[in-house]
C-alpha cells in the first residue's frame, strides 16, 4: 500500500479510515432553548456533560482503530492564526449573522477581536449573548429601565460600549427578549455536512437552512490558511458561494469514478448538476453521479440518514425511501457530448444501478430495523441506517439501534457500538458526526 501524502484523499465510503475531522459538542448545544431549538434544527436539548462523554467515546473508538482524529475548533483557530486572518474572519462571520445595527456590529467585532483566537472561535461557535456585549443600545435600554441617566455598566463587556456611534433607529431592537446577538451553532458536531471530501478535493457547502449556513466558514478558512491544507493542491470542487444548496450528508463516494448524491430536503437537483459539470471539467476522477431522489422530510433530511455503504457489496437502507414494489428514482449523470452539458439517464432499480457502477454480481441492501413497521421508522429516526464505515465490513453505529445492529452482524459486518442517548438528539448518527479526510484506497 503506497503511503498517502495528500491532506484529503477519499475514493470510497469504506476504505480504511486514516484521518477524520470531528467537533466535540460544546456550549453551543446548551445554548438551545425550547423557543429556538426547532429553528436551530434540534428536537430536544442535549445534556452537555453526557453528550461530551458520548462524543469522547466515539473519538476513542476511532483512535483505538488507528484513526487520526482532528478537531474542527482547533484547526480553525490554527488556520486563522496562520493566515493572520482574525479580523477578516470576524468580519465575514458578522456579515452573515444578521446584524443590522452598526453599534452592535462594532461592539461584537471589538469583543471578539479582544480574545485569543481559540477563545474567539469557540465564542462564535457557542453563540454570543446580548448580556456579554455592551453597545450603545444597551445603555439606552438602561435609561428606560431606571428612568435615570445612562450609567456605564461595569463588568467584562463594559469596554465595548460604542460611545461614538450616531443614533440609528435600527439600533432599537425588534426583539429585546431574544437573548443572542449571534446565534449558537449547535449542529457543528455534524462535521459531515458543511463540507465533503471527494477524491483529493472537497465541496465547501452552501447549506440549506440559515441555522447552519455559517458553519462552512470554518472549513473555508481551514482550506485557505491552514498549512496542512493550504500548501497542498486541494481541489475545491465547489465553494460556498452558490445560490443552490448542497450538504455533505447527501454526498457519498461509491468509488473513485462514482458518487451517489441525494436529491433531498438539503441538496437540490440544480446543485448536483452544477457539481457534475465542475467535476467533469476540472480533471477529477469522477465520471458518474447517481442522483437518488429521497422524500423531502425532516426524518430523512440527507441521503445518509437512509442509506450508507458498509462493505464492497452491502448497504444499509431505510425501506421508507422505496415505493411499493421497491422502485426509487435514480438519475445517472454523465459527461455530455458538448462542453457545459451533462447526459442524464433515468433509472428506477437502485440495486441494479449500484451493481453496474460497483461492478459486483450480487448486492445486499440491509433494511433498517429489519423492515419492521415500528422498528424501522423508530431506529431510522435515531439514525439506525447512518453507519460510519471505518474499513470494508467494519462500522461504527449507535447502540440504541439494536435491531439494525443485530441484522448488520447477521450479514457479517463487524459493528462497533457507541453510547447514543444524547448524541442522537441532534438527529444525526456516526456518519453525520464525522468528515473523513483520508481513507486508504480499496484494492
Ligand atoms: N448528515 C446528516 O444527516 N446530518 C445530521 C444533521 C442533523 C442536524 N440537526 C440538521 O438538521 O441539519
TrEMBL record:
<keyword id="KW-0378">Hydrolase</keyword>
<comment type="similarity">
    <text>Belongs to the arginine deiminase family.</text>
</comment>
<dbReference type="GO" id="GO:0005737">
    <property type="term" value="C:cytoplasm"/>
</dbReference>
<protein>
    <recommendedName>
        <fullName>Arginine deiminase</fullName>
        <ecNumber>3.5.3.6</ecNumber>
    </recommendedName>
</protein>
<keyword id="KW-0056">Arginine metabolism</keyword>
<feature type="active site" description="Amidino-cysteine intermediate">
    <location>
        <position position="432"/>
    </location>
</feature>
<keyword id="KW-0963">Cytoplasm</keyword>
<dbReference type="GO" id="GO:0019546">
    <property type="term" value="P:L-arginine deiminase pathway"/>
</dbReference>
<feature type="region of interest" description="Disordered">
    <location>
        <begin position="137"/>
        <end position="167"/>
    </location>
</feature>
<dbReference type="Pfam" id="PF02274">
    <property type="entry name" value="ADI"/>
</dbReference>
<comment type="pathway">
    <text>Amino-acid degradation; L-arginine degradation via ADI pathway; carbamoyl phosphate from L-arginine: step 1/2.</text>
</comment>
<dbReference type="GO" id="GO:0016990">
    <property type="term" value="F:arginine deiminase activity"/>
</dbReference>
<dbReference type="InterPro" id="IPR003876">
    <property type="entry name" value="Arg_deiminase"/>
</dbReference>
